[in-house]
């Protein structure tokens, strides 16, 4: 249960969240130290466990909170997001980047989570990632003009390929720590990838 944490003022919540993202992102679930998280957040270890019942509880909360923050940010721009597949993906990515900039170590945490295999949290992670896949499909495939694609091109596979492409463009090795200018550079590269894919996957009349 995290009711004590959720009663904190937002700035203190943010400091604790960033501390968790930092330590878990750098060391992974098993090697991450709750003492290091507490120290980075400027609180005692006892207080950390007052807010979260266990290390596992905190880790899963951090992942769910990341998802909630991204969805909340997207929800504030519903009328301005394009129905063009590639333009929509670019706009959603820009919204995501703005959230990531507010939480400097969230990127490294997310990429660490994608590769996490610790059996203590593995099943719960897969459930959260599966839920994320459903939401991503709703946001992209079910909400865009997929008839623009050439015959035989499956938007679901295109989206999967692009997400894998994004894992390279925003590689954890390049941005283990917060470097906003590097994030922007990779965003520019990602935009170029999308333009190239659009040229090859769209029917001529939609280019």
List descriptors.
207 residues, elongated, Tetracycline Repressor, domain 2, 10 helices
Please give a structural write-up.
The protein has a single domain, classed as Tetracycline Repressor, domain 2. Helix content is 70%, strand content 0%. The protein is built from 10 helices and no strands. Helix 2 (10-31) crosses helix 5 and helix 2 (10-31) runs parallel beside helix 7.
The third-level CATH topology is Tetracycline Repressor, domain 2
Report the C-alpha radius of gyration, rounded: 19 Å
Biggest β-sheet strands, sense, barrel: none
Number of helices: 10
Tell me the span between the first and last alpha carbons.
51 Å
By DSSP, the count of extended strands is 0
List SSEs in N-to-C order: HHHHHHHHHH
Shape: elongated
Task: Assign a percent range to the helix content.
Answer: over 70%
> Kindly state the mean pLDDT as a whole number?
87
CATH architecture tag:
Orthogonal Bundle
Q: Which structural class best describes the helix and strand composition?
A: mainly alpha
Low-confidence regions: 172-177
CATH class: Mainly Alpha
Percent in strands: under 5%
Total domain count: 1
Please sum up the structure shown:
This protein is an all-alpha fold and 207 residues long. The protein has helices spanning 3-6, 10-31, 34-41, 45-51, 55-75, 85-102, 106-114, 122-140, 155-169, 180-201. The chain starts with a helix and ends in a 6-residue tail after the last helix.
How do the helices and strands line up, and which of them pair or pack?
Layout: H1 3-6, H2 10-31, H3 34-41, H4 45-51, H5 55-75, H6 85-102, H7 106-114, H8 122-140, H9 155-169, H10 180-201
Helix pairs in contact: 2-3, 2-5, 2-7, 5-6, 5-8, 6-10, 9-10
